[in-house]
Amino acid sequence: MKYKIYGKTEKKVSAIGMGGMRFNMEKPLQESAELLHYALEKGINYFDTAPQYHEGKSEEIFGIAFKQMPRDNFFVSTKLMPERITNADDAYEKVCLSLEKMHVDHIDFFHVWCIRKMEHYFDAMRQDGLYEALLRAKDEGLINHIVFSSHQQGDEVQKIIQSGVFEGVLLGVNILNFPYRWDGVLAAQHQGMGVVAMNPLAGGLIPQNEDKLRFLTSEGETPTEAALRFLVGCPEITVALNGFSCEEHIDMACEVAENARPFSEEELNRVKSNLTDSTINICTACGYCDTCPKDIPILKYMQLYNNRVLFDISEEKMIEDMAFQHEWGLLGEDNSWADACIACGRCERSCTQHLPIITRLKDIAKWEAASKKPLKV
Ligand code: SF4
Ligand code: SF4
Fold first, then answer.
1. Is pLDDT above 80 for 247?
2. pLDDT per residue over 4-29, tens digit each?
3. Which protein residue's CA is at the shortest distance from atom 6 of ligand 1?
4. Which of 149, 197, 196, 158 is nearest to 174 (CA)?
5. pTM of the model
């Protein structure tokens, strides 16, 4: 395993981190906890979770695992959203609850979670707010480092970084969107912050579309391996965070980390020349939009729309795909179709990627209407 120093904290963290958001839902918690032991054996020492991951069970899984892991051998990170607390006392209690669930006496990296716009940052920093509670927890030794996670781009994330109140940042950066997110990465590095990359495989989009993403690769590697090598090889990135659901995925990521050769300038230019503006406008399957009053399966629709955005799939093909997805695929069990959207805007307000969901649903509704005929076999 390759290790890097997390910003100015002097913590030596593994270049591959394990995120607790993609455990197999079918498996018992104990079995998922064993994956953390496996990851630790493989050299991974950075474990990241949040109270809401894995339907609220992720911190519990971490706690089961941590009971049998020497505390000095790993770093734990968790999070709290500014909008999910009422005041500093409430936030402090939630920090204590995370400690209790994970059976640890301190949290190494605590994130002000999911800053999607400046209001969230101002909310976190208000008097009697989240940051105040985190400072108190830090003074008492319950937290070592206060950091933040953001899905913003450009100027705004730089402003937060330059405020100097955080020691690290978790950013959604990967090989498909890096030209559009790199300003934030460089600003964080300049400030001496650790930079953790979430969504290294673009929410599963890279492994699912390997045949169309060959331009990412060199020397016989797969696009998935290239995406991980890119992040591990970047000196600006401290940890590439992966949501593992099985040992094979851990093996693959660790193997890449062992041999990670940084991308050469030629490789980077090749990748950049194949990327377009559309690569930042993709759904990363984070699930934050799952609050639709009409029960529209937004995440599934936006994942299908990714193909249109990334690979310029024709309308005709999208119509065929809609028919297929309703008959056999992703949408087979959903009764609420895209035309049920009442444009209330709730999903767009929570979308981490600021996607025009309502407009995309209008396109999808059109394709769905055209697809309501028997599939040609
Ligand atoms: S805008 Fe449409 S899809 Fe989004 S939450 Fe409202 S009804 Fe659901
Ligand atoms: S539409 Fe936006 S909020 Fe919903 S899953 Fe995709 S990226 Fe996340």
1. yes
2. 999 999 999 999 999 998 899 899 99
3. 344
4. 197
5. 0.83
Q: Identity (one letter) of the amino acid at 19? A: G
127 in the same domain as 56? yes
Burial (CB < 10 A; 0-12, 13-18, 19+), residue 72, is exposed
Q: Are residues 245 and 315 in the same domain?
A: no
Q: What's the rounded Cα separation, in Å, for the pair 354 and 45?
A: 32
- If one residue of 283, 291, 298, 341 were mutated to test the ligand 1 pocket, choosing by the most ligand atoms within 8 A of its CB, it would be 341
Within its chain, how far is the Cα of 277 from the centroid? 20
Residue 348 CB contacts under 8 Å (≥ 6 apart), including other chains = 289, 354, 355, 356, 357, 358
Distance 334 CA to ligand 1 centre (A): 15
* Partner residues linked to 18 by β-bridges: 47, 242
The answer to whether 227 touches 200, Cβ cutoff 8 Å, is: yes
In the chain, the amino acid numbered 237 is I
- With respect to residue 218, please indicate whether it lies within any of the assigned structural domains: yes
For the record, the structure tokens of 351 come out as 């979308």
For atom 8 of ligand 1, the residue with the nearest CA is 292
Q: Is there a domain that residue 359 lies in?
A: yes
Counting from 1 in the atom list of ligand 1, the atom nearest the Cα of 348 is 4
Quick check: is 216 in a domain? yes
Q: Based on the fold, state whether residues 209 and 269 are members of the same structural domain.
A: yes
Residues 353-362: tens digit of each pLDDT: 889 999 999 9
Q: How far is the CA of 345 from the centre of ligand 1 (A)?
A: 6
**Which range marks the domain in which residue 147 is found?**
3-274
